[in-house]
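Key result, reporting period 2: structure in, sequence out.
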């Protein structure tokens, strides 16, 4: 691993300043970042650890779930508010990596990493979640799905950080997330499918089979979808998995809560 400077800012303004250098990278949980650094894929000259910033916490305000970016995935999984109002999120987290990783990994880090194999981006996109992005030029609120530009690419500008995620009330909607893994249940998925039912037409967002979370206009749109093959399966194999898992996820969503 190449040498690097470690900085621990006490405020967001200090973090923005430290992140202006080209070789600087933010670190929240660091679970994926450290693996990339050890593999030599990423060689930052400065890591800006966000652990001292007050960016954690879970609360429900006017029916909206508000989650601080530094909230661990394990805390999100165990939250009574989440399990009661958004049970699909808690169910999804139970097979995300393993409990050791979920104890360390944070929501903001999971979203900012940009890996299309992540479980939460397609689910939060289907749920209509938004992210608050803060930076030296101010703050903006964007749909979660608009955070992604491609494989390991996000639309975050230099110095910008995800500071909070907002998930609208589930209300009468029903939701499900299913994934197919080629090895253990907590492995990276070959495909992931999030479905939210609200009226006649389902909201469908797929992950792992594409280079970013991708919304489908209808189940039939799978046939025209550009698929990315990788170590978890060829493009043809993943397309067939999607044909099956989209139907299963719709069925699962219809039966959610029963």
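The corresponding designed sequence is given below.
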């Amino acid at each position: 691993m190449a040498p690097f400077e470690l900085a621990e800012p006490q405020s967001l303004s200090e973090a923005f300043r430290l992140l202006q250098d080209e070789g600087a990278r933010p670190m929240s949980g660091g679970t994926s970042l450290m693996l990339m650094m050890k593999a030599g894929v990423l060689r930052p000259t400065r890591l800006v650890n966000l652990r001292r910033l007050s960016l954690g916490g879970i609360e429900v305000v006017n029916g909206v779930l508000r989650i601080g970016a530094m909230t661990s995935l394990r805390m999100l999984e165990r939250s009574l508010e989440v399990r009661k109002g958004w049970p699909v999120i808690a169910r999804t987290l139970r097979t995300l990596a393993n409990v050791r990783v979920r104890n360390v990994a944070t929501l903001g880090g999971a979203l900012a990493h940009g890996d299309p194999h992540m479980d939460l981006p397609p689910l939060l996109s289907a749920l209509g979640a938004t992210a608050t992005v803060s930076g030296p030029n101010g703050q903006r609120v964007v749909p979660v799905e608009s955070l992604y530009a491609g494989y390991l690419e996000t639309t975050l500008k230099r110095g910008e950080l995800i500071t909070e995620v907002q998930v609208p009330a589930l209300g009468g909607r029903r939701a499900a997330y299913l994934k197919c893994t080629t090895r253990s249940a907590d492995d990276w998925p070959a495909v992931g499918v999030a479905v939210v039912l609200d009226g006649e037409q389902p909201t469908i967002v797929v992950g792992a089979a594409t280079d970013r979370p991708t919304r489908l206009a209808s189940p039939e749109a799978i046939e025209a979808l550009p698929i990315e093959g990788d170590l978890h399966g060829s493009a043809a194999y993943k397309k067939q998995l999607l044909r099956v898992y989209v139907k299963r996820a719709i069925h699962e969503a219809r039966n959610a809560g029963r």
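The chain is about 30% helix and 25% strand. The mean pLDDT is 95. This case is discussed further under Risks and Mitigation.
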